[in-house]
Amino acid sequence: MSVLAIVCAVIVTLVGHCVLVAALARRAGIEVSRVSIFYGPRILETTIGGVTVELGLLPLGSYVAFPQVDPEAADGKTVLDAAPRSTRLMLAVTPYAVTLALGLLVLGPVDGLRAFGRAFIQLPAGGFLFFKYGRELVGSVVEALATLSPLVIGALTLVKLSAFNLLPLPTLSGARAVEALIGRSLPVGAFAAGALLVPLCALGWIAAIVSYWLA
Q1: Is residue 35 part of a domain?
Q2: What confidence tens digit (pLDDT) does each residue in 110-141 have?
Q3: 197 in a domain, yes or no?
């Protein structure tokens, strides 16, 4: 049941992100071209309200795509990039504010916000310092799975995923929020670094899990 609670929390986060971003963008008058829920082999594709909706097989991520302002331009600027800063900030933050709020309903504001704040340190530290810190965190998670209720575990997962997606790393929503706040795009090199760091962090967590079980 605990594992099922984690899986459900992941699905809620991924699907909720796409649905909220697409709905809020269209409400703000921003055209949406594609909503892709989950990665991997495509198992469903349809069109809803002029928007292509795809469903993949693997619940490892999701995204909302926006058309370019000028399809022939080389800068790749989308209609979202041309939107007001307040709108871009809203679209970056709101989906994860909602999942955080859902977690807080179960955990309570004090414990929930404490877990949220700790996640900003735990998630990157556990991924990049996986042989020590990451393995210790995996051990604490295993203990929690045995002692906490599935509802609490699901709520904690929602809170941690909200924090992860709001990390100011390129390719994550946190970076888009930073761009909206400072009023300019991050350097291309930063996105290249983010495209490398995020998978490395994920691999670090996998290594931490494997090393914990082999210890």
Answers
A1: no
A2: 988 998 998 888 888 887 777 777 778 878 87
A3: yes
- What secondary structure, in 3-state letters, does the chain show? CHHHHHHHHHHHHHHHHHHHHHHHHHHCCCCCCEEEEEEEEEEEEEEECCEEEEEEEEEEEEEEECCECCCCCCCCCECCCCCCHHHHHHHHHHHHHHHHHHHHHHHCHHHHHHHHHHHHHHHHHHHHCHHHHHHHHHHHHHHHHHHCCHHHHHHHHHHHHHHHHCCCCCCCHHHHHHHHHHCCCCCHHHHHHHHHHHHHHHHHHHHHHHHHHHC
Q: Which pLDDT tens digit goes with each residue over 162-200?
A: 998 888 877 788 888 888 888 777 666 666 666 677 777
How many domains is the chain partitioned into structurally? 1
- Considering the domain boundaries, does residue 34 fall inside one? no
